[in-house]
Structures
1.
Amino acid sequence: MTIRRFAPGAAFAGCLLLTGIAVSDDSQRHISTFGNENGVAQTFNAPGALDTTGPFFQSLGTNGRSCATCHQPGDNWSVTPKHIQIRFDQTQGLDPIFRTNDGSNCDTSDVSTVAARRKSYSQLLNKGLIRVSMDVPANAEFTVDNVDSPYGCTSTTTLALYRRPLPSTNLRFLTTIMWDGREPSLSNQANDATTGHAQGQPISAAVRQQIVDFESALTTAQIEGPGGKLDDHGAKGGAMALVSQAFHVGINDPLNPPFTPAAMDIFSALASNDNKRQAIARGEALFNSKPISISGVTGLNNLVGDPFQGTCTTCHNSPNVGNHSVPLAIDIGLNAASHRTPDMPLYTLKNKTTNAIVQTMDPGRAMITGKWADIGKTKGPILRGLSGRAPYFHNGSAATLQDAVDFYDTRFGIGLSQQEKNDLVAFLSSL
């Protein structure tokens, strides 16, 4: 057995690869493990030991960034505020993640001093949000009549949208690329990230394929929790079980039966174990079966009726993965003006035909399609590896898994008891 150790703060093309151990065994299965607040996460890399010399870790643009700048192995291949703040303190806000093209609150933000940078990169530091600047589509069914921005980004034609970097692992389960589904392929996404985030020139087809091959070989899941290992006593936690998980597009779509709401069967074997592990199994059962009256969700209720009786797995239905098994952009209300916090912009959109008005923090998929019906819609992410990449939702509005559970309980009037909330958090933190 050989062991490779990554020292704390080891730098790779402007990213900090945090403490981890990559293990190679006789069967050539190579695993890296990284601690998080809920235990330990595990990444399986199909070709072998994690190679940090390829183009994913190289600066391919002009501003020092690499793919890994915003997709850290130690953050389950996303980034977290805790570690972004460490990078700020270590470099006085000059690490490549801190760039005004999309890292600052606005492209005109003052970054002349450390204090100014701390203020100007507050969305990145506090919520791990990247600013995505998008033009309103020329064929849009709406106009942007007003922009209320706390940062001075007030254009009505190019909107500043603040979103979490999605993890670059478990990609074989994807049915939609990016929160708004704007990328047609991973190859296209790699190129756009280089020309946009890294401010570089288009990369060759060969380099694109190297990046896609690297990302596609990664599988990540939680392997240890407060109750111990998640792959013993018959449980199927960790990356190795996920590697062999069956999947195809539409595998368990409630809109195209056959469908089973019992989409998660990772931890049922823990039901007779100790209290902490029993909580995980109870949470999984709740996730599969707790009745939810789903109402007011555009993109879903207009297809199945309003209200519609479902469970968590109505939307999180890919077996043991947790995303939707077909592309499905929906609006659960996260972008609504009623949920606005002082650090977020508010856009007033007017329908060109009806003059109807909608206020939203992020028009979501409508910025791609131009359709009024798509305002506020985003995809649901893959749930595996949640513990290592807080905060949650596309806009980082849930600081913890408890906050995420509380949002759903309030939004849909589920009526969860505190014990049920705790059990759901135990389950989600074990994914």
2.
Amino acid sequence: MNTPALIYTPSQQSWSSAGTAPDPLVRINRANTNFEIGPSVLRPDGTVFAVGATGFNDIYNAETHTWTGGPTFPAINDTYSNCQTTASGGAIEQLAAVDAPAALLPDGNVLVAVSPVDSVCAWIPPTEFFELTEPI
């Protein structure tokens, strides 16, 4: 699914297109009733790190008005499956930033918290922290 983006211009009190992110960043549940996305952080270099609720992440350059694909979060072998701790084996779960926080660090890097997203019970442990470093 495409992820269109908009820019708000306060002086004109209007929205305009910022194009479409190259990767799907919005997580939609099976009934198409629940839409989730991760945070977006404006960095000092004029880029926006758009964190996806799908494991994908993209970068918008506010100066050139262009999108590029960013780093993708890994999938992990988790010990939770179907909302329960599994005795062995675990399940492969995609790390994603579903309603997750992010912070701009003093050096311009971005710290983001992600966790596995289980298809049955949604958010499960553990929380992992990733730091996007400059330059990209």
